[in-house]
Fold this protein.
Amino acid sequence: MPIKARENLIGAWAFLIGVILAVLLGIFAGQYSNPLISGILAVLGLIVGYFVYQKDVQTFLFAAVSLVIVSYAGMQGIVLDAAIRGIAIGRIVSSVLSALLAMFVPATIVVALKTVFSLAQK
């Protein structure tokens, strides 16, 4: 029987809920855009950033900064603007990326600040 690690359960759940909300918000942004959900994504991002362990900081920052840069570029219209059966794929992808930014920017800021403070203490 495999042993499950429970060291980062809160951060993992916050991340999962945030990604699901970001994708759902992105898909339905044209019809049901809600600033409250964007605020919830930002709070979940703060929680995710707080619960990143010191040993995972470098990997998290590398992945998060890459995601933030790609999401911002995609949001600016660099993504393919295609339509399949009347569904604007470009708009949906841009909305999903924008919602992911609402979660990952706060998480990246928290992890970067924690790293700077830990470096300043040494």
